[in-house]
Amino acid sequence: MKKTILLLFFICTNAVFSQKKVTDTISSKRLNEDREITIGLPPSYDRHQNQKYPVLVLLDGDFLFDAFQGALSYGNYWDDLPEVIIVGISQNKNNEREADCAVDTENGLPTEKGEAFFEFIGLELLPYIEKKYRAAPFKMIGGLDTTAGFLNCYLYKDIPTFDAYISMSPELPTGMEEQLPERLAAIQKPIFYYHSSADGDVKKMRNRIIALDEVAKKINKPTLNYRFDDFKGASHYSLVLNSIPSALYQIFSVYQPISTTEFNEKIAVLPSGYVDYLAQKYDVIEKSFALKLPIRLNDFKAIEAAILKNKAYPEFEKLAQLARKNYPKSMLADYQMGQMYEKTGEMAKAVKSYMTAFQREEIGDLTKDMMIERADELKKSLPKKGKPGKKETAAEEPVVEETPTTDTPTEAVPTDTPPTDAPATEEKKKE
């Protein structure tokens, strides 16, 4: 546990410098005061002028901001987590924390300043962020103990304000352990819900958190992505450094590159539709997080491996269409067509496809030498012109033109092996 905490400490303190961090002040009519906020903008924010980013609002921003920013920066470096706009609300500067989260002792709903703070976040803070920054529709909120219990109140709305909730060791308002599962079951929009505790947590809080989980984990609906972590050997405060990466990887699981587990458990077992799976994965990323990404080369490789494993060779044509759309100048699409023709015995067409690929830009570990070698090897199996044999004739080699300079990424694209969990060096972000 100590090693984990130490590692995450260094991650947080080092990674924080990779993002732009600014302090701002909002004059709130509902709070009747100025409230300080800290904004963390993604490293690519200034470069990618058309990109929008998911928003993470952090209560207890005074001490949670750096921890979340470090985890997000590290995950993004390996392309496991997307870049996010982080908004930390200062609550400890003038001891506003308890007053901000005031709730009625009988019904558990925000009251007095708690009601004003509740409205400040939904009606002032979020519109301010959406107007000033390129914020995607996907919104998250996180907090610890008092603030974690308070943020759950947004789930009581008919249409919840946030899409994802990170509630770490929540101090639950009155009746919430019974009411919250009912709300999670009733809400129609897709919701990500994460909460956590630990064996060293505050006992009176922990018992109610466990009671909430006992009911919530029985909810079975496709629109609810639910997770509860109960950490061993952690205290009320150290559980935070365990919870943050767990929550983020839960919320952005679909964003991550295809892993060995996903390949073996979800893709390779399919009877067909491997290319459809890939297209749908990226469609979900775009619709859920407003992130339009080119399909990763290693994900192309994973689908290629599934096609080869299951001998579903006609799917190479559909995969080639995706490759042409995502990497139009590269040899990837023609290489995949060559594979289809080769595996289905149409050697002349395979030779032609590999020679066409030769004229296009290299990508990953697909090289011009590889295309020539494949074409030359297949030519040996073709019948000689003018001699008995199959009607199929050798394809003429196209004229080789000078290849334009490529601006296409050069990540590795192995040809017939499933993906590994260890990211390739070429998959690192080169921001």
- What does the average pLDDT come to? 88
The CATH homologous superfamily of the largest domain: Alpha/Beta hydrolase fold, catalytic domain
Q: Spans with pLDDT under 50 lasting ≥5 residues?
A: 12-17, 389-397, 399-415, 422-431
Number of strands: 8
CATH top level of the largest domain is Alpha Beta
Domain module count: 2
What oligomeric state best describes the polypeptide chains here? Answer: single chain
**How much is the radius of gyration in Å?**
26 Å
Structural category is alpha/beta
Instruction: Provide the CATH topology of the largest domain.
Output: Rossmann fold
The biggest beta sheet reads:
8 strands, mixed
Q: Helix count, per DSSP?
A: 15
Describe the structure.
By secondary structure, the chain is of the alpha/beta class. The chain has 2 domains: 2-255, 3-Layer(aba) Sandwich (Rossmann fold); 272-427, Tetratricopeptide repeat domain (Serine Threonine Protein Phosphatase 5, Tetratricopeptide repeat). Helix content is 43%, strand content 15%. The protein has 15 helices and 8 strands. The protein has helices at residues 2-15, 61-77, 97-100, 113-132, 146-151, 176-186, 203-216, 239-251, 260-267, 274-289, 297-310, 315-326, 332-343, 347-358, 368-379, and strands spanning 20-28, 33-41, 53-58, 85-89, 135-144, 164-168, 191-200, 224-235. An 8-stranded mixed beta sheet has the order 1-2-4-3-5-6-7-8, with helices on both faces. Helix 11 (297-310) runs antiparallel to helix 12 and helix 14 runs antiparallel to helix 15 (368-379). The relative contact order is 0.09. Residues 12-17, 389-397, 399-415 and 422-431 have low confidence and may be disordered.
